[in-house]
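Possible regression after last week's pipeline update?

I re-ran a chain I had predicted before the update to compare outputs. Posting the input and the new output here so someone can diff against the archived version. Not blocking, just want to make sure nothing changed silently.
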Amino acid sequence: MATITSTEPYPAGLIPPPLEAVFRHLDAGHEPPRRAEDGFPLFPDDPLAAEHARITEYLAEAVAACGDGGHYDFNPASSAAGRAIIEDAGGHGAALRAIAARVLWFWKHAVHFRDGYWHYKEGTHRPLLGNLAAAIWRKRPALSGDDLLHILAPVTGPQSDSYVFYVGGRKHLMRAAERHVRDNGLTPPIRLCLEQIREKWTGELAYEFMGRGGREVVAAIDLLLGKSAAPGLRTGEPWAEDAVAFLAALDGAARKAWEELIAHALASTGSKPSGKFLKQAKKLVEAVTAAEFSKRVGRWLSLAATPRTSPLAEDQTNRPAYNVRPEYDVYADDNENILKGLAWSCPAAGDASLATPLGALAEWCFKKIPNLGPRSPKVGNACLTALTMMPGPQPAAELSRLKSRVKQPTAKKMIEKAILASAARDGIGPDDLEELSIPTHGLTSPGRLTRTIGNYTAELQVVGTTKTQLTFTDGKGKARSSVPAELKRQHAEEVKQLQSAVKELGKMLPAHRDRLERLPISRRRLPTGDWRRRYLEHPVISTLARRLIWSFEAGGKGVAGIPVEGKILDADGRTIDDVPDDGAVSLWHPIAAPAGEVAAWRAMLEALRVTQPFKQAHREVYPLTEAEQATGTYSNRFANHILRQHVFAALCTQRGWKYRLQGGWDGGADSTPTITLPQWGLRAELWVQPVFADAGPVASHLSSDQVRFYAGGAKPMRLADVPALPFSEVMRDVDLFVGVCSVGNDPTAFQAPAENPAAGGARADDYWRSYAFGELGATARTRHDVLSRLLPRLKIKERASLSERFLVVRGTLRTYKIHLGSGNILMEPNDEYLCIVPGRAGGPGELFLPFEGDQTLSVILSKAFLLAADEKITDPTIVRQIKR
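New output (post-update):
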């Protein structure tokens, strides 16, 4: 059948659109006997005359009901004529062809372009036609090949995108094509039509600018035509390139099954998977087999958490041009959607080991890219959703790890919501879920796993708080840390499992430590029996729990103790015999203990050579001061400090405070650092404001001000009414902010104001000197106490001594005073400043410390060891200052 002249250009070889009779009359110059409500010409011999009469009636009713507006929201079923068309299953094909004819006619005869604008006639009727078409498509109409061709063919013509929009949308058109091909096979006319649609959308319409929907349709067409080796996958990302190579190596049913799975993933929509999506995903996972899915998709998820192999091209994404930069390590739109769908499909495999790559990918996706934000919240949230749907301890353990690792506020909310959903599914509390879900990683005794592999004994051991080591011992007793070559060749899989356990433990241990440190502020108490099973006897958690002090309560009495070699010892080293299982256990905190008890515990830990995973016995406490009682509702204890804003913002996130960078604009409520303590019903604020005339839109420095507490309302609480423990922990955080972020801790900041009056001139320099060598805060006083006990055991004990504020080191060339708060150095006799960047200070070697986590104490000791042998220093920058 020839192409109709009035509808040129349409590709040769296709059945023309459903306007043949109408345009035949119009081309001959005949006026129609009458026109429809929308101006469409009605001819008696039009093959679709009956359908047009029904649609004309529907439009009249719809226009009367809508009046001057509401056409896009009109429900066709509310019209008697519309309802009759929708319910007439046998007439769906003809009705859709008639709708297609009217939409085409509109663009040919009811629109003209003038003065740079489109001018429309009867334009209000297109939305009403589109609503009617959508209602028919929702009935999943059974179309003949002729119907389908008449509806699809105009997609290749002019105004293609608008035609598709008003005749039902890309998704409905392609689903109709898929159903027809499934039931009737791919006939030559349908093939030709699909090929030309694909050519239209990938060529003239530049489908990359049509959004993900257009690219999904092209991928679906490729599947129908049997041309796709990797539907929707875009190169430039390691995981996608691996998937393309994998699919290219397949053939037959296996390749088809994987292509259908990936196409299903590409079509995922919404923020959560629908029941229909999950049902189909399960069917497709079974088609490729659950074992093969876990192996292949687990690899892809892991590779997806690695950098791109080439920069993201603009034609691979709908992001604005300023968000498509070579340094932005983000996903192409199609790949992002496929990853999202594959993550949602993971629960269908029933393999808990997929939790590990899902958790790693979620952490990667929620990591913030400068000037852009989180890498991919869409994929990250999909991973969280999948973890909540997977039963067993491993997925819950990943959620717990992510809770500690991910700092971005929105992502943290998603993770906490996912943990609550998992706990609700299992009928337990979120704290119980986190404790019960901690995996052993194969360890059979506290911090240790031993396995015979070939002629070697492999030993995995937890070392300290966050480190692990893997050693291999041969038959002669010789140990090595590298994997022997013969094991790589003959036992690669077993070695790989051990290395995976090392990697997973390395990620989990810091998360476990952080969770334990939060136990007092979260008011966690649990039965003694549960504590023994979950903490003392767990092969991973016990490596931390056995180095901590616990409070045991029974019969209205309480006692503090530490587990040592199967016993519970008190602060004096006596065994606590009565620790009944029906009692309660919580993590001991020094705020409620007398000073004598705290001192006894510190001595006890040093005698036992126990290094605690974080400060507990040596933890700084902050009781209310007289000045704070006088101010009533606010504390000025840490006011008027100059802080480096970017360091401060990062530390706020790490410690669970909400904060947004400030600059030359009104930052709003989010720019006040805030922490919420739900278990106490409290909220605390630290007031800060930008200082100095910083260059650029974001201030580089802040000035600290008041600390206030709130009990739900806008009015601050009296500090005397704030419970001692949350008050102390909040003030400790603020002290940490000052100690880490103050410019007084920066040895290069303001030491030479005459030559480099950085950011504020004299005021900044005055502050720097007052803080760098001023009175000691609580943290620095703790260092003083620790050093007083350590010095007699150090190699430099003859050259080192303590004064009120300094560790004094006598070198061969000069005497040095290292400030215990800032770590800065003055040289005697005239208190000259000595600048040593910490990276150049070296280290004190193996040295026992009673706790981990105080980096400044380590820096002070490193500087002391360096300066005690100052005649051996070769760094020219340091030598020049000493001999100045």
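Follow-up from reviewer: compared with the archived run. The mean pLDDT is 83. Marking as no regression found.
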